[in-house]
Amino acid sequence: MTTQRMLDGKVVVVTGSGGGIGRDIALMMARHGAKVVVNDVGASLTGEGHNDGPAQAVVNEIKSFDGQATANTDSVADAAGAGRIVQNALDVFGRIDCVVNNAGILRDRFFHKMSEEEWDAVLKVHLYGSYYVSRAAADHFKEQRSGAFVHMTSTSGLIGNLAQANYSAAKLGIAGLSKSIALDLEKFGVRSNCIAPFAWSRMINSIKVDSPEQEARVAKIKQMTPAKIAPLAVYLASEQAADVTGQIFAVRNNEIFLMSQPRPVRSVHRGEGWTPETIAEHAMPALRKSFHTLDVSADVFSWDPV
Predict the structure, then answer these.
(1) What's the whole-model pTM score?
(2) Residue 235 catalytic?
(3) Domain tally, the chain
(4) Residue 4 counted as domain residue
(5) Residue 187 to residues 142, 147, 150, Cα–Cα distance (Å)
(6) How many angstroms separate the Cα of 46 from the Cα of each of 43, 101, 121, 203?
(7) What is the pLDDT of residues 11-57, one digit of tens each?
(8) Which of 128, 131, 132, 167 is labelled catalytic?
(9) 20 to 30 Å CA-CA from 139: which of 123, 205, 255, 276?
(10) Any signal peptide, and if so, which residues (predicted)?
């Protein structure tokens, strides 16, 4: 008797899955029974160039173990391309059950040196891309009263990192987008969650290494393989996660974290209201005890990955 796999009968779109984290997610989705749309524009980290090589290569890997997959080379960075990605799933496999918004690029630069093009390009792929593909799938999920979104956020946005204002803003925006989707589509049985992955990939490979501290950080990341992210993505796509929505998880090698979401941590009250002077004299001294420090991700996740 054949054992039922966790994603049998499911159709999953994985954007940016020609390599790195996306590739491992696509492979594991297929191994657990999903039919996969492998999307990758075949571009460099900066978004230049175009070919269908990476996506088709992953499809070939999936077919080598008798999985089902199709390659797609549309860009997530415009609404029409995102619509074609979702339509690809419908045309080839007849339905869509999960979207993994994984596509991304990096254009790291200190904020005071960042160009409009560097800002816009990263926002377009990460934040707009996640919106466009999710929006294209939402009506189908609503109609069938089921569906799952898995979005890739980052501790660069949730906590902070140097020289990544564009990436950090996009990734924190994705966390807000995911929560809004979870709230708006809950009544239709649709779920939306985020993963903040720690993993060495072709995108992370572009991190500037210009100090001993950065070198040590990159050495840590290299220990964490993209394959470690895939099990959580597969779970979140499955019916076993039917009651999991609106959450932010982080995966760091063999560790899975549930991340906090912004909530009040301390308050002050003055019956007669506030003036700038009383804020300086009373409010800030009282609130200062709970101020957040200027941490970067490596300060918070300071221990070696296990």
Answers:
(1) 0.92
(2) no
(3) 1
(4) no
(5) 9, 12, 18
(6) 8, 18, 8, 9
(7) 999 999 999 999 999 999 999 999 999 999 985 555 454 444 899 99
(8) 167
(9) 123
(10) none
